[in-house]
Amino acid sequence: xxxxxxxxxxxxxxxxxxxxxxxxxxxxxVVLVDYIEMTRKTSxxxxxxxxxxxxSLFRVPQLLxxxxxxxxxIAAMTCYxxxxxxxxxxxxxSAGVSAWQFLTPAxxxxxxxxxxxxxxxxxVSANLQEQAQANEVELFxxxxxxxxxxxxxxxxQATSEGQTIINAAxxxxxxxxxxxxxVFRFDPSGRFSERIEAREATLEDGYWLLKNVRRHTFTEPVxxxxxxxxxxxxxxxxxxxxxxxxxxxxxWELPDYITSSENSGLxxxxxxxxxxxxxxxxxxxxxxxxxxxxxxxxxxxxxxVQKMVLSGIAAGFLLYVLSKVTEDLSKAELMHPVSAAxxxxxxxxxxxxxxxxxxxxx
Length: 362
What we know:
Layout: H1 2-41, H2 49-65, H3 68-85, H4 88-94, H5 99-140, E1 153-159, E2 162-172, E3 177-186, E4 192-204, E5 207-217, E6 223-231, H6 236-243, H7 254-263, H8 269-296, H9 305-331, H10 337-360
Antiparallel strand pairs: 1-2, 2-3, 3-4, 4-5, 5-6
């Protein structure tokens, strides 16, 4: 029992070390690529180098959430291939330790890492993404540079004063604060009345507070104002439902977003899918370990290791394609969010388990 526990801690430590090394390697690579892209965007403006670096560092953690399962897959394959190359798996087998016994520590470690990724890493990455958006507003100032990459957000509101169409280049605090605004106002009869440009807008109780405003009308010269109140019937919950990307909402806030969107009559498919994906993440990491072990436990002296590794990478890619298909179906409300989030986990787990059973017990 002592030997088994010692081996279990050893195998778990090797897997965790490999997972951290792969994640940090991918993190550094993505930061460098994103920093180069941010440098290109800010080449024409007087921007602080540290602010650009900080923005890239804050943007990357959320991008890496999508790559985490593949980091676990590569880490597990690297770990077991290294153990096999150094004949440590051969020694373990000769001591009477089965493949399931030295696989269990990695599965448990992957489950713990997945839990930490959901309850700790996800809220941190969501918060950093908000700070990255604030940094982008500080970097680019107005909306001109930012619109080179996107057309921004469009929405309309109707009040007793008529209809208003609003375009915002970016949003912060889940849409409560908007930057780079262009507002088109129409009177109750539907005729165009004025166009308003503003640097920033904050949703207050019953109105948008616009700052650094320029108002354009047919009958008067351009009016420049420090602030302007634009009446609205929108609530913070309704705005969050329109502007908040489900992936930018932390795990702990998702239940409240689902409830508020339901009360506002908005679609909750995206939020429900994201919540189920975060719940299934520990099991997905474990499924990746099963897939990796199915293609990396082969002894080096038997040959064919390269083909096994390529098949493991291909299996991970196919699993990613499956997850994207189910995700799109769920967002289109053609598939239940629970099924969309857990189907890739079930497929990956069963594929890895059946392959291991065939290799070890078949």
